[in-house]
Amino acid sequence: MTLHIPFDNSYARLPPAFYSAQAPSPVRAPHLVAFNQDLARLLGIAEADRKELAQVFSGNLLPEGATPIAQLYSGHQFGQYNPQLGDGRAVLLGETVGRDGQRRDIQLKGAGRTPYSRGGDGRAWLGPVLREYVVSEAMHALGIPTTRALAAVATGEPVYREGAMPGAILTRVAASHLRVGTFQVFAARGDRNSLKRLTDYAISRHFPDAEGPMGLLAAVRDAQARLIAQWMGVGFIHGVMNTDNCAISGETIDYGPCAFMDVFHPDTVFSSIDRMGRYAYSNQPDIAVWNLAQLATALIQQLDDPAGAVEEATEIVHAMPGLIRSAWLSVFGAKIGLPDATPQDVPLIEDLLRRMAENQADFTNTFRALARGDARDQFTDPTAFDGWETGWRARLPDEGQAAAAMDRANPAFIPRNHRVEEMIAAAVQGDYAPFHRLNAVLARPYATQPEQADLMRPPKPDEVVAATFCGT
Ligand code: AMP
Ligand code: MG
What we know:
The protein is of the alpha+beta class. It has a domain at 11-174. The protein contains 15 helices and twelve strands. The chain has helices at 37-43, 50-56, 126-142, 180-189, 192-206, 212-233, 284-299, 306-318, 320-335, 346-358, 363-370, 382-395, 399-409, 417-428, 433-442; strands at residues 19-21, 31-35, 69-71, 75-77, 80-82, 90-97, 103-109, 124-125, 148-161, 163-174, 236-237, 259-260. The strands form four sheets. Strands 2, 6, 7, 8, 9 and 10 form a six-stranded antiparallel β-sheet that branches. Helix 3 runs parallel beside helix 15 (433-442) and helix 4 (180-189) packs antiparallel against helix 5. The longest helix is centred in the middle third of the chain and has 22 residues, at 212-233. Adenosine monophosphate binds next to loops. Adenosine monophosphate binds at residues 85-89, 116-117, 120-123, 240, 244-245, 254, 256, 470-472.
């Protein structure tokens, strides 16, 4: 074997209560669909041929130094506590410390059954695997913290969903897979030793300057507050912000029924399983706070006097809405050309968003058009934009400078849902050209790419994707 991955597996060195040893289950005929060379280089992975990559990233061949495990966690799903979740279809091969000094997990998602699979088959199908590949890499290129995609492999085996679908495995790379739910499982069991051990581990891995459980809580809060504001700034709807899908590192994790909005409306929901709109676009800040409160509840269980810590924990959680608002203000300030926006600019931003919602303006294209002077064309009633523009221009410091800066804050390209669906439909037929094209264009989302203008176009009425389905 020529493929070399410089593993150093700190999580597998934690006590056995944290995981189950679990090898990936082999697949029949692995075929490499995509391999992310840039990311491989960053991770320190040496070159290998496509056959070998397919063997390793399907789980058929265990690379030297891997210690495959399925991680234990629990979580609140749509507000209901589920005492045992865990990696039901993912296997952590191990970790590497990359060329940038950052430690990252390398995980196979869709690698077969584990002790946490419950009724599931432990597998994934090609559609969600390619969706996560494209959207997570796009997120990274947009400058938003996220897990990444190292490889996608078709397994050559069917997976049964609504009919037989082609099976696939995604190799996911993450700063770690520690979630709010990783803390919740030990807190719920009253296992204070494991909770303490996990807290120390999370601090040393992600926030070495944080002091104790409350320091960790504040650090996670800050990272999550920035993340949510960045999602809002690109019109991203995560779709399943359960506590098991909320990463301690502050990365976006678990791309299931997620989507970027086309037409702006704050109540937009895509996920077919989110009937109450719990995870609607504009609810995301509140949900992030709710998730942090669950982390706080878990973390204080390790203290000798949990009741005495409630006040401090509450204070940390209560500061989060304000932190999200100020992060939101810098994100949206930059989008309208005001990099040093102050709270006095909030009404200006909110007024624009209200007019956009009333006029079915495309979120991405409207902001991108601000620097070009043709944003009014995005509004069903263009005078609604004119009514806002006067006040905005009066506030802009220097238009030339503002335009260049706005182009670095307002992407031209996002992974539009209808394009993602079109890409999946082609891939199922064996045509991966749209997949590769999306990846290439979305790697430079802020660049003007005139020859790719069709990927900027919002869906026509018959192309609109109304619901996205869970990543199973
Ligand atoms: P998710 O909605 O992807 O965050 O998954 C929630 C839980 O269901 C996690 O514990 C997953 O590991 C598990 N899960 C999702 N899909 C499957 C599957 N096909 N087989 C086994 N477990 C699964
Ligand atoms: Mg999950």
